[in-house]
Amino acid sequence: MSRIKVDLHDVFNRGHLIDAALDDAIRQAMNKRVPTVEIIHGRGKGQLKKRVLKFLEQPEVRSLYHRVEKDTKNPGRLFVHFRH
Q: Cα angle vertex 20, ends 60, 51, to 5°?
């Protein structure tokens, strides 16, 4: 497995589920040494993307990954890269 995929379309309006889904994906990537997490937040008005970025910027989360890449071809998703 080279990537974990998280699609937030189903939980976009439930904040606690968004955080839980993101946390679970980050933990899985750490435990299984997966190099990339793909987060699909959709295009919309950008509120979900802001929520995802705010989650990723928390110091305890930020210390776990290497960098965040915005997909230039699809503005509705992000990639979180890890160095294991």
A: 70
DSSP string for the chain: --EEEEE-GGGTT-HHHHHHHHHHHHHHHHHHT-SEEEEE--STTSHHHHHHHHHHTSHHHHTT-SEEEE-SS-TTEEEEE---
The number of beta carbons lying within 10 Å of the beta carbon of residue 10 is: 9
Q: Is the pLDDT of residue 13 over 90?
A: no
**What pLDDT does residue 1 have?**
65
- Write down the pTM of the prediction: 0.92
CATH among 3.10.560.10, 3.40.50.620, 3.30.1370.110, 3.40.710.10 for 3-81: 3.30.1370.110
